[in-house]
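#data-curation
PF: Archiving a pair of folding outputs for the training set. Convention for this channel: one message per protein, sequence first, structure tokens after, nothing in between. First:
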Amino acid sequence: MYNFNFCCPTRVIFGKGAIEELPKYIDRNKKVLMIYGGGSIKRNGVYERVKKALEGYNLSEFGGIEPNPKCETCMQAVELIRREGVEFLLAVGGGSTLDGTKFIAAAAKYEGENPYDDIMIKGIEVKDALPLADVITLPATGSEMNDGAVISRIATSEKLPFHSEKVFPQFSIIDPETTFSLPARQTINGIVDTFVHVMEQYCTFDVNAPLQDDWALGILRTLIKEAPKVLSNPADYDARANIFWCATCGLNNWISQGVPQDWATHMIGHELTAFYGIDHAQSLAIVQPRLLKNQKVSKAKKLAKLAREVFGYNEVVDLKAADLAIDAIEKFYNSIGMKTRLADYEIDSSEAAEKIRERFKLRDVHLGEKGTVNADTAYDILKAC
């Protein structure tokens, strides 16, 4: 196991009625900005519950954060914050709203002229950010218990991540009942997103970290078990709760301590979303099986363990078991209604492969746990998609 330095300062308030506990954790003397997305929280009652819980607070609102949050929209919120002297940010909605809020928190305190270029592209350290918290209503990104966010920019068709300890949520409220009304597409996206998050941290090479492996495989087993339940009965509280906690634990860094990580599927998938506008999870489901096939030899031991301990195969030859695992992952995605080919979204694989190869060449990209996924490798993977 590698050395590691772990910190997660986020408090999690989980369960029925958790939203009503908001006043316990926000200073009544702070000027608060509630940030949300396209209006789903008004349809499902979450908006009213938050407003009621924060009655008497100095509360402003900013709506319109998109799925795959856009830098351009976030900077409008930054202008409002500076104009009104906002002191605390509360994201209410899904992971995109929270990711956008993290960028807003950093950009509002940033003294440079172009926070996207500096933070996202140049990797300049975030030295300060507004305090933030969230009422998270969609199990997917795991952003509610980590220091990361992914932000797009319309002007340049880019979608890039950043990390900073300054943007850890102070607290996250998770009430699984808020997910009862989610459209099936969003539920499916969240399950796939979580599955791939776990695989990016688990499916590399062995460094003798059995606890991390078992945590990761336990999350995957739970997702596979609970997914059919929640899709057949969207109001199944226990299934919703189990899936939500899987999503949170899938990216709160517990399973990634002391082990190598991949993230090539995500970085290639981000480019598909940036160029073609498909959902984040859709891009992951397209890329991941082909990337695993491409990298099968170096990942064979972990894939074989996945085949045996999650999908129940008895194949003793690691490379054969690896093939079974990859096929089983794609079948699982298909079984819950997730498509896994570029053609399913009327995207030409040759065009996508060439676009992303050229972008990766310009950036001199080397991805994966061993840095072996370069522009040409990405081209081969996408051609096979």
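PF: Second:
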Amino acid sequence: MVIIKTPQQIELMAGAGKILAACHRELRGIIRPGITTKQIDEFVDDFIQSQGAKAEQKGYQGYPFATCASVNDEICHGFPTFTPLREGDIVTIDMVINLNGWLADSAWSYPVGQISQQAEKLLKVTKECLYIGIEKAVIGNRLGDISHAVQAHAESNRFSVVRDFTGHGIGHSMHEDPQVLHFGFPHKGLRLSEGMVFTIEPMINIGSYHLTIDQNGWTARTVDGSLSAQYEHTIAITKDGPLVLTEQD
């Protein structure tokens, strides 16, 4: 069942989103060759606490970290480690913030130093997929309109769309209805209505969309070792169009 949010509740979620966006802006200045994803995770945890909020992922179903930190061929749910990032890596930092019981969720992919042209294109196209999907998140459209727009743009650039992980509703809980696919057919699925709040979070691979799960039971990585990127926003459906609750700019 989709839980419709009131304008007041959306405003509360926007408060969590502002903290999350500010944290990602801070990360732009610290992600560089030599830093570890464990250091990034500790920075994020400290930043969130300094804003009077908490990292919702920490302890979720036993997950031990404030962030997911996915490097290169890791698609999502990467564990922060003490391995230094290297020139040419890409890293996705995903976090969920709880501010007074209301949540916001956003992932962002970052270049580490100078990256290859292919990696640059992957980041560019993946971010474009996110915003193309958001453009379709208007009252009267269907979830399939978002899904199809994301898939069409990724595949027109000869990239693949991960099938096994999706966007999701969010509010008091991290994962609510509806499920938001990033592949599919237009004019299909749930019709969008005012007050829906969910994430759009395409995960795009250079190679195959198939994946494997590491022995830790969490980390997903590309089956062929190709690079993967992800960009994610939490959005609300309003009468004035999609409202991005985690916008950084």
